[in-house]
Amino acid sequence: MRLCVGTSKGIVILDPARSRLPLMVLADPTAIWCMSQDCVDPAVIYAGATEHVRGRGTLARSVDGGRSWSDITPPGARDEEVWAVAASPTVKDQIFVGTSHARLFRSDDRGRSFRECIAFTKIPGRERWSFPPPPHIPHVRSITFDPRSSATMYVGVEEGGVFRSRDGGATFESLNDGLYDDIHTVAVDPRDSRRLYATTGNGFYRSENAGASWRHVREGIDRSYTVPLLVTNEDSEQIFTAAAAGPPPTWSVGYAGADAMLFRSDDNGKSFSPIPAEHVWGRGMIMRLRRDPESAGFFGATNDGFIIRTIDHCATVTAIAENLPPAYDLVTLP
Questions:
Q1: d(CA 114, CA 106)
Q2: Which pLDDT tens digit goes with each residue over 284-315?
Q3: What is d(CA 45, CA 37) in angstroms, rounded to the nearest whole number?
Q4: Domain residue spans in the chain?
Q5: Count of CB atoms within 10 A of residue 212's CB?
Q6: Residue 260 three-state SS
Q7: Per CATH, the architecture of 2-333 is what?
C-alpha cells in the first residue's frame, strides 16, 4: 500500500510500511486542498487546488496512481478555486466538483467535459451565503453521497449550510433546521441513511431524520472548531473527528497552535471521547481522515506537514511522516 498525499506544494507519495522518506515528490499539481478516487479504478485520482498558479488550472487528474497529472479544470471555472471534489461511489468516471462562489460542476466522462449544476445557483437564500475573511466569497466545502442511493448527494457550503439533491444535481433542497451554517464536512451513515453528520465552525452536528433537523453534539467534545469526519463501515458504530480550540486565524498565534484533538464516538455520534495523542503531531490541525484499508484504523493529514496513523484498534496514534509541506488530503493506493 502507498499513500498519495496532497500538500500546499504538490504531491507526495509515501510507503507507510517503510521509512518516513517520500517515494516521490511532484510539484505539479500545486497547492492541493482536496482529493478523490474513482470508484472502480483507484489509480484514477482527482486533485483540487485553492490557489491559482500562472499557467495552471485548479483541477487535475492522474490515471497512474499519482505519478503524473493532467489539467482538467472546467473551462467555465478557470477563475475558480476548487474546494471539494467527489467521485461517485457507484458510477465509474463520474465526479462532482465544488468551487469558490459556491458553484457545482458534474462530469460523467472522467473530467473530459463538465456541465454546471445550474439548480445549485438558484437555491433560495443563496444571496446571504458568505465567508468571514475578505472578499467574503462562499465555497462548496463538502460533497458526499448516500451509500444506498448514489443519485442522492449532500453538498456543504462554507458558509451557507447543507443541501440535498436526490437526482444527481438536477434539483436541491435546504437541510438547515438547527444547523450552524459554517460547514466543513458532511457524511452519511452507511448503516442508516437517515443519520447524517456534519462538522462545522461551531462543533459537531447530528441528524436522525435525513437532515430535516439537526442536534448539536457537545458531550465529550471540548473544542469548538471541527473539520475532518470519518464514518466507519457497516459493521461498526464508530465515528471519528478532530477539533481545534478556535478558527484558523488562531492556529498560528497561540502557545499550543491549533490545540487540536482527535475524538471518537462508539454510539453513532451521540457522544465522543478524546483519543490520547499528545505530541504525535505538531501545532497544526488535522485536516482530513481516511480509512486504513489494512486495519480498522485511519490515516490523517495535518496542516503542519504530519501524516498520522492509528494502530491498536485506534487506541494509539503514531506519526509516519513529518516535515512535509502543509498537508490537506490523502488517498490510499494498493
A1: 5
A2: 999 999 999 988 899 999 999 999 999 877 78
A3: 5
A4: 2-333
A5: 12
A6: coil
A7: 7 Propeller (2.130)
